[in-house]
Amino acid sequence: MAELIPFIPKATLTAAANMEAFVRMCRHDLDVYGSDLDFDAPTWDVTKFYFKRGFKGRMLLNFVEEARKQKTLPGSPVKEPFASQVKAYIRYYVGIKAPTSPPLMEIRAMRELYWAFLKSGLKPDLGAINAQLLDQAVDLADTRVPGDYGPRVGLHLRYLSTFLHEKHLAANAPVDWKHGLKWQVAKKRRLGEAAKAIREKKLPSDRALRALPTAFQLAKSPQDIISTSVMALLSCAPSRVNEIFALAADCEVQPLSEGEQGYMLRWAGSKGYPDFIKGIPAVMADVAKEAICRLRDQTDEARRIAGWYERYPDQLYLPEDCAGLRGKILTGADIEQIIGFTRPKEGQLWAQRQGIRATALVRGANGRTSRGFKFADIETAILSLLPRGFPLMDKATGLRYSEALMIVRRREFGSRRQARWRCMFDAVSYDNIMKQFHTADGIFARLGLSNPDDPITLKTHQLRHYLNTLAQRGGLSEAEIAAWSGRADVRQNTVYDHRTPEERLEQGRRREKELANVRGQRIRVNPPVSREDGQKRATHGHATEIGFCEHDFASSPCSMFMECLHCTKHVCVKGHDPQHTKRVSLALESARRSLAEAEAAMAKEYFGAEEWVRAHRGTIDRLEQLLAILLNPSVPDGTLIRLSRSGQYSLIEQAMRDHEAVTGAVLLHNHRSEAPDGLPGSDA
């Protein structure tokens, strides 16, 4: 998106005046969604600003009272001033957040708020929102659409309310409003009839699982072969169908060493997960290989056409038997031969529908004359059908159409009456796959595996849920399941886990038995040792520049991190290293210089300088004590030097002091001598 101009409200203006200025700025000064955006239009076409794999339709933002459905008349536009305010907010919001998908849910939330105004008998105006209207909007949404729609609306209205309050755009916008609805999905996911219904909806039926491999073997037509191969790949490893749309034709990864049997695919990540190499289980490797081979065979011609247009973007691709037609006046029959139409006069009718005028009469091979069309006009019309974004098919991965696995000839998934084009290609879309498996008259019915009275349907996401549930039953760790599924957040595994309560209970019992066996067979309990024996066995944890540390890191982390000079567990052996005295002297000189700089800063009343003066003085005091002992001839070499406790707190003590300052609860005695032996604050 374009660079955003921040809106800065003026304290001297009323909320209504600030709202007018905000709408005016978003209308005239912002170029989010393009500087040529028709701000007042009830529908914004934002297709070119977003990319969605497998989607070829238009992306629209509808500022109407009721959500529009496909093939229906436009809804009534939202009334002013609410319409302009919402449009301004959406344009500003997109500039701030830069979402990767259109802000449809944000607009739905605004629509619920709009109806809350009307239900209350008020004129819709964002500047007049209050907590009661927000509550009513969420209640209306929850009543109208059961489930988690209401809470989702509430989340977006909370962000709106905070924005209006912070920007002084609504006088009565609550400071910290929250919706009071509970999320329903989490409650229904585990137990009861609701959980059972969710499992049945998310998982494929047994009939579908049995019918899919049969359909894979019976598929003969290109569209059946392609769609069943996609489903076969989704059955090999938990994946999203959009990731298959981003596969390259050479996605197979060769084994790292000769003789290795592993099979992997170069996979495109989604939803925040990076591109990665997806391993296919050995039991499904042959299925995946066959699916990739079939897809590659069925889409090879489309890649060849795409490669032509990449090399010659302004020239029409002609099949070999049409090469002699370039630059000539074309008859309707010539157009049919180039495109691939099979019905008589279809070429001439197609040219007329494109608005191409006939230029002359042409005598055909049969001696008849017919109307002719300029080759350049036909060429321009066909070139205008190149897919959106050509030559780049996938913006996220940089995949080109000529490299992609999932492209086909134009109209490959059309009806039987529609011809498959010979001179143009297209990307396989989600709708192409969905119509094969989601409908009662789809591929299962066409291949005789079901009938309309008892249909078999299968959705792409059901296979992902099924494989994740199998992985849970098989005992894979959460990290392994997330990595196999290409999932950035391990917590999302829960949504795909559809084990029954009985399965969970039985799996938990098996795990407890396994742990009990491990405890009984492999773990040895060591007898306790005395303090004296422990000291004899003790070894230092790590060396420092002037000694070594006696702390037992196996029992606890260091509580004096990077403060060895102030720690009583730090020991210096006199004479062990002749460089000790030199290092202490250099450190003392450096600390004195730092103290002088800190005192100069304190004299100038710099913030925090006083704390630095105290710290440097404490360091100098410790270094002077240590240096005096190292230089004292009466102290023999080999003496262990351990300085007495300083006034500096350990990390635990400092946390206790901070807690006391915030809450007033005393966790640490004021005098160190009062602390029990062995606890923070004692000298033990």
From TrEMBL:
Signal peptide: none annotated. It comes from the Bacteria. It comes from Microvirga ossetica. GO terms for biological process: DNA integration; DNA recombination. This is Integrase. One of its GO terms (molecular function) is DNA binding. InterPro entries: DNA_brk_join_enz, Integrase-like_cat_sf. Keywords: DNA recombination.
